[in-house]
TrEMBL record:
Keywords: Membrane, Transmembrane, Transmembrane helix. Its main location: membrane. It comes from Zea mays. The chain crosses the membrane at residues 202-222, 234-257, 320-340, 352-369, 515-535, 555-585, 597-618. InterPro entries: Anoctamin (IPR007632), Anoctamin_TM (IPR049452). The keyword NADP does not apply. The keyword Transmembrane helix applies. GO terms for cellular component: membrane. It is a multi-pass membrane protein. This is Starch branching enzyme interacting protein-1. It holds the Pfam family Anoctamin. It is found in: Membrane. The gene is SIP-1. Residues 194-631 form the Anoctamin transmembrane domain.
Amino acid sequence: MGAEGEGAVEEATGFEVCIVLPKLSRAAATGPTEDCVARLVRELEGAGLLVERVRGVPAEFIKLAAPMGTLGRAAADMQMKKLTYIGMELQFRWDQVAAFVRQPDGSLFSWRERYCCFRYLIYGIVNKTNSEIALKFDGKEFHWKQSESLLTMLEAEGVVKRIFPLHDEIKRKQLLRNWALNWLDFTWQPIDEIYSYFGTKIATYFAFLGMYTRWLFFPAVFGLTTQLIDFGSLQWLVLPAFLIFVISWAVFFLQFWKRKNSALLARWGINCSLSEYKNLGIELSSLSDSLTVEEKKFCDVSAEKSKLQRNEWFGVLLRIRNYGIIMLAIICLQLPFELAYAHLYEIAETEVMRYLLTAVYLVAIQYYTRIGGKVSVNLIKYENNQGEESSSASLVYKAFGLYFMQSYIGLFYHASLYRDILSLRQVLIQRLIVYQVLENLIENSIPYLKYSYKKYIAIHKKKRGKGSTVGRSVRLSTRVEKEYLKPSYTASIGAELEDGLFDDFLELTLQFGMIMMFACAFPLIFCFAALNNVTELRADALKLLVMLKRPVPRAAATIGAWLNIFQFLVVMAICTNCLLLVCLYDVEGKWRIEPGLAAILIMEHALLLIKFGFSHFVPEEPAWVRANRVRYVAQAQNVCSKQLLRNISKFQGKLD
């Protein structure tokens, strides 16, 4: 094999991808027409994959594994870009494997890169003959056309039901033991192992959740102190001081998260991308082309510029229209519903009725907001967004607008109408407790109920097929059968643009908004949030490792649009808490207009200054990350300059 694969062959690969086929309703008949499953297996083996067929109760499964050499050649054929040891992302070459940076666990490819190679290999099986090939399955016959992907054709014919990634049992059990079931350290997480197993996006979410939970203990302790200690004559200063502390805490938390995120990406070899080199105006792959295409005229450039400007402003108008539709739906449909709930809540006679009303409301509003989310997904299809990341951000903003109204309008209504801080605290407690308990119950019970129902249906069909005379029990005997019946990790509004992290991040932002915007009304609310997040860490880990299929890896290196929403909620918190402090409460809990609007306006402007000023005190990336980035850019400039000079010399030589 040579030097190209000495390090790579040491990596053992298990079965990582599964193709699901329906069970045959009749025995396969012999004849001149080839069975499509047998042909698929032969083609997969011809592509260098390791194949294992499993005949289960609900379906038939083809499990796939790949030697590292097969993945390496696929990555080279895909022209995959990987980070090298000089800090540049270059096209992968299997014969130069030693030049490319390895993953934290020592493997050559990340989980997302391996999954992309698998999909490239299985969808790259095409009919290279000069004629159509007749195939049959379960008595049906169809034709595999020239240059057609075999797997695409089988999906269209209903032969291939699903393709999904498989759990690695050894790594899954290690994560289960060391992470999900490890309650000794409430917030510790093996982030590098999570990244290696689930990919960048999920690892980034858990890193953010862990850091957010740890930082919550600071305002939780301060809030608990304000409730337990009587400050006497200085009591009127407690809430303003608490507000200043909370705003400063939020600003520093978000800034330190940016630092942590950049450090994680640097450790995973993701932060150094070609974007730095593109900013230099130099592309290695286009150096020669830029010198040999001198015949391009300025009129072509002007025409392209005009076209891009038209598309840009047309996309802006489409987004404005879609945001207008969402806002109209909120005002005309959701706002009356929210106000009706707030009114019914106030006229309820007992606390039991209020808790029941809140539970019914939260269940009903889930369906409304999911409908709104699906409408948002359809609207985004007509926007001129640049790539999947831009479309996902647009969806996040629209959906959060719906949930923002759902979560806070009742609280705003109660605070403005009754102006009773003690009553507002009761509403906050009920909202937080009922919402978090109900959300966790739905989040963790529905996947199990779906799995149990699918398992029952599969076993029941198998029993009916065997007949009533058979006394043996039917059960799922293989791991792949159980994984197939588990629900996928998808967003509640649909899987087109987002995975299940959409709901998890949405839950965090709604909680963050509630504890921040009403911090002065109930400082103890941070304690509830901290306790909830400690359990959320382990519950989400168990959900991913036990209750759901292994998620498809997605290429997201940051929390994206959610960070903008967190920063927006900090500004909202400044405004709402200053309004609360306009009416300081007296001994009886009633608010009164003191010490005056002037003092509150001064405090509001001071907090805004803290918010935007403190953001610049903490650098967004550690010094070692910044130093590496500068060094990598300098190396890239050096390499690009040498290549450019060589091409200029060649070009000048041709002119001479």
